[in-house]
Structures are given as structure tokens and as C-alpha cells.
Design brief:
This protein has about 400 residues and is of the alpha/beta class. It folds into two domains: about 80 residues, Sandwich (Immunoglobulin-like); about 240 residues, Rossmann fold (3-Layer(aba) Sandwich), CATH 3.40.50. It has eleven helices and 17 strands. The strands form three sheets. It has an eight-stranded mixed β-sheet with strand order 10-11-13-12-14-15-16-17, with helices on both faces. Strands 3, 4, 7, 8 and 9 form a five-stranded antiparallel β-sheet that branches. Helix 3 packs parallel to helix 11. The longest helix is centred in the first third of the chain and has 28 residues.
Amino acid sequence: MKCEFNVKKSMTNALLSLIMLAGVLTVKGQPPRGPLVISPQVNPDKTVVFRYLAPRANEVKLSAQFLKEQLPMAKDTSGIWSVTVGPIDPDIYPYSFNVDGVTVMDPANVAFFPNERFKASLVDVPADPPLVHAVKDVPHGTVTYEYYPSSEKTTGSLVIYTPPGYDKDQSKSYPVFYLISGTTDTEETWFKVGRTNFILDNLIAEGKARPMIIVMPYGNVAARIAAQTGAPKPADPMGRESADALKRAKDFENDLVNNIVPYVEKNYRAIQTRESRAIGGFSRGGGQTLRSAFGNMDKFAWICCYASYLSSNEMERDYRSIYENAANTNQQLKLFWIGVGNEDFLYNSTVEFMDFLKAKGVNYKSRITSGGHTWMNTKKYLSETAQLLFK
């Protein structure tokens, strides 16, 4: 027994020595850690400090949606580049760094802008009182990632919001708002940038919006098919009314009507009537909204168009029934809402669309805001229209 103990003790000591040696070698093999970088740092006075660690960089600049041009940053002795900006009007803004001519995200920040291309970082400058998208002490709904059988045997992706209390009362059903994001955005953009869940949580808590399910799909069917079949990702269509653009819009419409809506109504407690289905979208998603709604008036009774339009030529070619029997359209639609910023590059085209509808006697509500083609405006449009839906 004594001999056995000594052997075990010797083996144990040898094993401990190996572990300690391995630990020393591992520590020595790792590169030294740099200084802790806090970025962005939002101060109480609404100024914001941006920092980026790059000891060997020659030049670092800040690029942000609240800036008219890139802003040079200064480097300290530890290799951290920084700049203080503001005060900045409260909202959520995308930003990035330009490091010796290369655009990069902020590695110190986990919040980012979901996109098919470059994913900018996000900074949230809070307001007092809090803005409608702020996290407040109210009952919160649930956000779920869903996957459904889609076009050409691919798997589609959805982000779905269910309102507070959805899981508690299994006997209750809800209306559904299909909400589509813009060109190069993903199904996550309305959630992570548009803050759809918090906007609805707050409006519902205040009694301003009816509890509803919100379905946020990915609008680029062609890109998804390419990704899942090993084909190269198709370039964006040349022109908003090119044959390619119209085909892709039709492909999305077919996916929405034939795949997404049936999947949602099978797996969620959705009220399955046109009066309980709304559709809305921003930019390209606004165009998809209009085409999907005008082409399926038996499916949707509420239309929310954010910074988008259809041309007179397309209306006359494809959607004559919408305006030739304007009285019937007005009776069918519970809401037709159009919003755009006066600095938006689609402002003139959107106004022309509204003028066309007005001349033809098609009723709509409009909202012209300041600002451009931004998610700051889009959050405003969502918060306004959500208060009008299903009432």
C-alpha cells in the first residue's frame, strides 16, 4: 500500500509539473494584451467619445451618419485613437472607422447594423424623456428567429415579434403586420436598428397600439437562393423598374403570399382575415409592400409605405384596377399611409406618387418629415403607423 501510494504521488507531482509548464508556455506564446478600450462612451451631456486601438496606424478617422464628413482622430501614447463629438441629437446612429483608408467596425462595440455588405457599428444616444424606441420598464414581448420552407427548396428566415402576454393566454389570436426592410438590409434590421420590439412594447403599454404579431422577412430572395445553392451572389438590379428589379419584387411577393403568410398562420395564433393583415416596408421594402398589396388586395387591408413609391408608368401598366375603381380601393383599404423625409433622395418620386394617387381619387394619409433616407425617420414612421393599425 505504501509503495502504491508513493507511485501515485510521484505521478501526481509529475502531472502537476506538466500542467504548470504548459500554462507558462501558453502565457508566453500569447501576444501581449493591449489597453482596455471603451467605445463608444456616451456622456450625460450627449457628447460621445469614440476610441480605436491601432498603435501602428498612420491615420484614423470617424465616419458617422451624424457627420457631414469624416472626422480625424488623435492617437495617445498607448496607441488608442480617440475623438469627442457632440452634443448629438438623441437617436441611434451607424458609424465606422477609416483606418489608413480601410473602413472597419468598432471592435469594442457589440451593437452593429445588420446588412448584406459592410456592417456598421451603432451608437445609441438616449433622450430625456426617453424616445419611443428606448428600453422602458414595461411588459416586453418576445422576439423569435424562425425558418420556413421557401422558394426553390431553400430555407427562408424570419424575425417574429409577439406582444406581451402572447404565451400566457393560449386562446387569444392576434392581427399580423408584415414589415419589410430596405435594399441590402436583412431580416434583423427592423429588430436591431428599427427597434420594432421596444417601440411596440412601449406603445402597447401606453394603450396607443393594439397588441399584434410583427413578421420581419428577408427581402432578397435571389441572394438567399444563391447562398444556399452555391451560386455567386447576384448584383443589385440596375434601376428600380428594370426587368430584373421587377422580377425580384415578384419573387418576393410570391414568397410572401405562398410561403411566409401560410407558415405564420400555421405556427402562430394569427387572425386569418385580410382585415387582420397589414403590410409595410422601407425603401426597397416599401416598393415590395406596394406591389404585394396592390397585387393581393384579397390578402391585405392595411398598407404602410415608408420612403418609397411606384411610378405612374408602373401603376398604369400593372395596377390600373387600384385607381380605375378608386371607390372600391378606398373601401377595401383600412389604411394607406405614405411617409418620406424632405431630404430623402426618393422625396420627389414619392411626392409624384402621392400626386398621382390624389389625382385618381385614391385616399391615403401622408407624413412629410425632415431628414433623409434614414432609419431615424423610419422608426418615426413605424411608431406613427403602429398606432393606427387594426383599429
